[in-house]
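Hello everyone,

My group is preparing for a crystallization screen and wants a predicted model to guide construct design. The compound we'll soak is zinc ion. Before spending weeks at the bench, it would help to have a computed complex in hand. I've included the protein sequence and the ligand's SMILES below. Output in structure-token form would be ideal because that's what our pipeline reads.
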Amino acid sequence: MPSPEVEDNELDLRDMESCFERTFEDLVLAGRTHWIEHQVVDRDITVRGCLFRARYVPTFADRYVMYTPSATTCPICLQSEKWEPSIGIGDSKLASFLLSRGVGILENNFPYFRGQFLLCSVPHIPVFSIPQLEAIVNFVTVAAIQTVTFQMEGSGATVPAHAHASFFSEKLPIFDLSRIVRSSVEEVDISVCPDFPSSAFVLSSGSIRNRVNVTKQICEFLVANGLVYNWLIDVNGDIFIIPRTAEKSIRMNRKIGAATVGGIYLAYCDDSKLRNAESLRQLIWDRFQSFTAVDYEAALTDVTAPISLNEEILQHWHFES
Ligand SMILES: [Zn+2]
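Reply:
Good plan to model first. Here are the tokens for the complex, ready for your pipeline.
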């Protein structure tokens, strides 16, 4: 198999500069993507010294009313014909590069971040393979994508049976937290985030291939110990691994996804019996307004592993080359 490492001459970076921003705007204008940027509201929330945010997304009310995933057919496989050029980026060199590595790009009709799309495994598998993750990290660095988030079964995925990640053009607050390098394997630095309220690992430096290999090793160790995880990838291709103990916050009575773990809490209405979009918008707004730092910490601690897990993993996990 040829190396998925992207050569500089393989992709024309100038073509990619605003490719996804343009396509996102086109989809919004065409009414295929529900996003009203000037109505999205963010509010800073400091959680144990970390500057996080809560976000109000009015179009979540429309999502709740309009989107019902099929119970019998995989909703991602149903859209697989869209890997091809239909959304205007399928014929770009980056999309072709991803597709050749088994990763397709799909529009997200109900985004919660600016410029949000989906990266999906072409085969129906629950977690991205090593070559797929390697292609995604290459894509992030070449196209200067600000954030990729991945959630699996048990860590917030809407369609857990089919691997998919979100990419978007906003940065998550966790990326700005301080890090301490604790170990180095195959030239990959393994850092922890001492200010983050929960366990978190960051893999940086080394080749992308090695970073991905170490990621998979750590994640296999987590799964063997009864945990699941979220991946967050920043614009430098640094991979954040957040071990997860639960999908749902008991105290917040809702599923917690990767964005919340990364520092942006998205107010939602997934327990509501209401089906009127205006009423739901008001409910989401009220929940956004009343959400506190205490609530944020409860949501995080209900679903992520305590910070003491950092030491346990550093002591007991060993890289197998
Ligand atoms: Zn599928």
